[in-house]
Amino acid sequence: MAGHDPAGSTGRAFGRLQAVLTRSGRLVVALSGGADSALLAAVATRLLGTEKVLCATAVSASLAPEDLAHCTRIADEWGLRWTAVTTNELDDPAYVRNDLDRCYHCKRELMDVLMPLAESAQATVVLGVNLDDLDEHRPGQKAAAERGAAFPLVQAGLNKATVREVSKALGLSTWDRPAAACLASRVPHGTPVSLGVLDQVAEAESALRHLGFGALRVRHYGELARIELPLTDLDRAIAVRDAIVAAVRAAGYRYVTLDLEGLRSGNLSAAAAARAGAAR
Question: What does the pLDDT look like over 59-110, one tens digit per residue?
Fold first, then answer.
């Protein structure tokens, strides 16, 4: 890691995280490549060494190819002990059904794969959950906690903003990485998740990234793709709309729409939860 140890309030947050990780012993870090899990992987490896820290990335159809390449790259650049593990959540009918608890079934599958690694090394599985995540509907956290996973960022009192501040001070390239989620999060709850749908979403999003867009979501509604971009990107999207339409149609969509409300992480889950509440 380049950069320097943080000072001030950021330094105090970093100190709390170090204290939590120092007490943790051996760890298996679930590395998705986002700012949260990347900070955990980097700091834990720096403190405890590669002999005590294994970083593992779950590879399945719901992981975007760019995210796997990113994890591979930072593992090499940062000197992490890293492995890719295969998860098979699409084999679980409860996951495929895609109700509000889809993430529960996904994390349960992840823990089924990671726990043998942890048990063989007498280690604890840790996930990059921060304080802000506790305010959202995240059933995956429940599944992980049920299997004994720990959340060091929560234990250290770090929210998303502090995670980014500490990461920046440490010189981690992930400090400003846009929030990411599995490809299944692009599929409205109630619409079954399939390999074909996930591949279609991945192809469309990859094409948009090649057009120069970073943070984005392609929400899947059958033949219709609803594109979410940061509000600051909307003018540019309109300027290159022909290229966007061509790229998304090449992925198999017939209709291409641009959401004027912009990028809103987790909005499909929020909408589904609101509908479920109204129906009660």
Answer: 999 999 999 999 999 999 999 999 999 999 999 999 999 999 999 999 999 9
Please compute Rg for the chain using Cα positions. Answer: 19
Please spell the DSSP secondary structure of 6-54, one letter per residue.
--HHHHHHHHHHHHHHHTT-SEEEE--SSHHHHHHHHHHHHHH-TTTEE
DSSP 75-125: HHHHT--EEEEE--GGG-HHHHHT-TTHHHHHHHHHHHHHHHHHHHTT-EE
The identity of residue 177, as a single letter, is R
Collapsing DSSP to helix, strand or coil, 258 comes out as strand
Low-confidence residues of the chain: pLDDT under 50: 272-276, 278-280
Beta carbons within 10 angstroms of residue 196's beta carbon: 10
User: How long is the chain?
Assistant: 280
Question: 85, exposed or middle or buried, with CB in 10 Å at 0-12, 13-18, 19+?
Answer: middle
CB 35 within 8 A of CB 163: yes
Measured CA to CA, the distance from residue 120 to residue 86 in angstroms comes to: 18
Report which of 188, 195, 193, 227 is spatially closest to residue 209, judged by C-alpha positions.
227
